[in-house]
Amino acid sequence: MAKYLAQIIVMGAQVVGRAFARALQQEYAASQAAARARSTTGQQSAAASSISGMTLQEAQQILNISTLTPEEIQKNYEHLFKVNDKSVGGSFYLQSKVVRAKERLDEELSIQSEQQKPQSQQNTET
Q1: 54-116 is classed in which CATH architecture?
Q2: What is the average pLDDT across 77-94?
Q3: Domain residue limits, the chain
Q4: Are 44 and 104 in contact (CB under 8 A)?
Q5: pLDDT, tens digit (0-9, with 9 covering 90-100), for 26-49
Q6: Taking the CA of residue 54 as centre, how many other CA atoms within 13 Å lie in the half-sphere pointing to its CB?
């Protein structure tokens, strides 16, 4: 009886071990695919997303921005910041999301301007 019980336990452990190993392999493959995707979309933008904890698309959705223009970002930021002010019954959480979204979009604008500087210098040299 104890022999059969031990065999069942060993077989169960093997099944769980194989399932865990397979899940680990799939997670590793997904992580590698995500890393390749990030490298093709731009190293700096991916770094900014990981630092701020917010993607560019998420920041654009929060501030309701379709194009990255400083004027539109500032206008929507000011409106949403005032609307979500705690003194007028707003949410501090939402207000902080608005601030983080603006920071992320400002970072993306600075990345784009840095990338355009070398291109414009190359155009003037030719």
Answers
A1: Orthogonal Bundle (1.10)
A2: 92
A3: 1-38, 54-116
A4: no
A5: 998 888 887 776 664 456 666 666
A6: 22
Neighbouring CB atoms inside 10 A of 94's CB total 15
Task: Tell me which residue has tokens 């990345």.
Answer: 111
**Residue given tokens 């355009």 in the structure block:** 116
Give the span between the Cα atoms of 79 and 63, in whole angstroms: 9
Token couple for 43? 């190293």
The token duo for 31 is 């992580």
Backbone angles phi, psi at 4, to 5 degrees: -65, -40
User: Rg of the chain's alpha carbons, rounded to an integer?
Assistant: 25
In this structure, the chain runs to a length of 126
The DSSP code sequence of 70-98 is HHHHHHHHHHHHHHT-GGGT--HHHHHHH
How many CB atoms are located within 10 Å of the residue 51 CB?
Answer: 11
